[in-house]
Amino acid sequence: MNNIESLLSGVGMVPNVTGRFPNELVKGELRTNRIVVLRLTKKTDGNAAGLGMADVTTSRVNEYIWVSDALLKDVQAIEELEVAGDPLLFQFDSTGMLMDLDS
After folding, report:
1. Rounded to whole angstroms, how far apart are CA atoms 64 and 66?
2. Which residues contact 62 (CB under 8 A, 6 or more apart)?
3. What is the Cα–Cα distance from 98 to 77, expressed in whole angstroms?
4. Which of 11, 15, 30, 65 could be disulfide-bonded to 21 (CB atoms 3.0-4.6 Å)?
5. pTM score > 0.90 for this model?
6. Are 18 and 53 in contact (CB under 8 A)?
7. SS3 content of the chain, % helix, strand, coil (to 5)
8. How many helices (H) and strands (E) in the chain?
């Protein structure tokens, strides 16, 4: 896959596109041997949840991954990873929905 991109929900690795289904009970016609992820799209906002479903990825994917405060110390302890910036404080509206980051 050139890109992982999930616009609505999920992890961006749609079984009907990848040929990899969650269990043996669900099957499709497409079969794949290996999944390689080259990058995330900007629309993922750094969500790399589907990356664990890939067999191989590139170091370029690290440029796009967003890491939560809860995991930041763990990520900083991994020498092969570089944290690109300080954590952001997310704002939520009165209904609990995440507000636009640009507002």
Report:
1. 7
2. 81, 82
3. 29
4. 15
5. no
6. yes
7. 25, 10, 65
8. 2, 4
Quick one: DSSP state of residue 23? S
Residue pointed to by tokens 């961006």: 12
Report the run of H or E that residue 39 belongs to, with start and end.
strand 39-40
> pLDDT tens, 17-73?
888 887 788 878 887 888 888 888 877 778 888 888 888 888 778 777 877 778 888
Most distant CA atoms of the chain, gap in Å: 46
